[in-house]
Specification:
The complex is a heterodimer. Chain A contains no helices and 11 strands. By secondary structure, chain A is an all-beta fold. In chain A, the strands form 2 sheets. In chain A, strands 2, 4, 5, 6, 9, 10 and 11 form a 7-stranded mixed β-sheet that branches. Chain A is globular, with a radius of gyration of 13 Å. By secondary structure, chain B is an all-beta fold. Helix content of chain B is about 0%, strand content about 50%. Chain B has strands at about 5, 10-15, 20, 25, 30-40, 45-50, 60, 65-70, 75-80, 90-95, 105, 110-115. In chain B, the strands form 3 sheets. In chain B, strands 2, 5, 6, 10, 11 and 12 form a 6-stranded mixed β-sheet that branches. Chain B has a 4-stranded antiparallel β-sheet with strand order 3-9-8-7, with no helix packed on it. Classes of the chains: A mainly beta, B mainly beta. Chains A and B meet through strand 4, strand 5, strand 9 and strand 10 of A and strand 6, strand 10 and strand 11 of B.
Chain lengths: ~110, ~120
């Protein structure tokens, strides 16, 4: 059973560009979570999604950030008009419907030049 | 709001010795879950051990065990017989049983195991 997949592992963008981060949950998992890790910090919750539904986006910045988890395909975290402060590691996790243990992907390291 | 505090930014231990990492948390909830995650240089987040607050017995996983003191809101991780592969950042995390998904992490402790 493959683990949580994230791609790309590393992403470099210039200020003002868009960043798209992808997450494929583990097989059988229908819950996806996104976290952001700034340098020297722990992970911070951003958003919790189920298929075609955003359950809780209380940790998402109000502007430029959006997330989706379509019926088919991976979950996408989209950052529009990136700024240097968006440079961070973005982790995706997934869990089965009835469990609370979250399995993490390897993360995407975003660097904004 | 729930908070998690790890007061030791860095620690080191000699191979084969025992080390304890500290974690305290603040919550008004009664039912919750606590976790220790390991983040090695590869940056992959790996679950080390979990504890349900309603269980009095401390969780153990091979060389890893916790000392859970609910009244003191303390959740320390003990690593016995330390190995070089234990070198990593260790994060304590809290999950309020009611939310069941919004993990709150501490800032982490960098553990170095020396040969």
């Amino acid at each position: 059973n493959a683990g949580v997949m994230q791609n790309p592992r590393h992403l470099v963008r210039r200020r003002g560009q868009e960043a798209r981060l992808r997450c494929s949950p583990m097989k059988g998992h229908s819950h996806v979570y996104w976290y952001r890790q700034l340098p020297e910090e722990g992970l911070k919750f951003m958003v919790y999604l189920q298929k075609e539904n955003i359950i809780d986006e209380s940790g998402m910045p109000k502007e430029r950030f959006s997330a989706e988890f379509p019926k088919e395909g991976p979950s996408i975290l989209r950052i529009q008009q990136v700024v240097r402060g968006d440079s961070a590691a973005y982790f995706c996790a997934s869990s089965p419907p009835a469990g609370n243990e979250q399995f993490f992907g390897p993360g995407t390291r975003l660097t904004v030049l | 709001a729930q908070t998690v505090t790890q007061s030791q930014p860095e620690m080191s231990v000699q191979e084969a010795e025992t080390v304890t990492l500290s974690c305290t948390y603040d919550t008004s909830e009664n039912n919750y879950y606590l976790f220790w995650y390991k983040q090695p240089p590869s940056r992959q987040m790996i679950l080390v051990i979990r504890q349900e607050a309603y269980k009095q017995q401390n969780a153990t996983e091979n060389r890893f065990s916790v000392n859970f003191q609910k009244a003191a809101k303390s959740f320390s991780l003990k690593i016995s017989d330390s190995q070089l592969g234990d070198t990593a950042m260790y994060f304590c995390a809290f999950d309020w049983g009611g939310s069941n998904y919004k993990l709150t992490f501490g800032k982490g402790t960098l553990l170095t195991v020396n040969p």
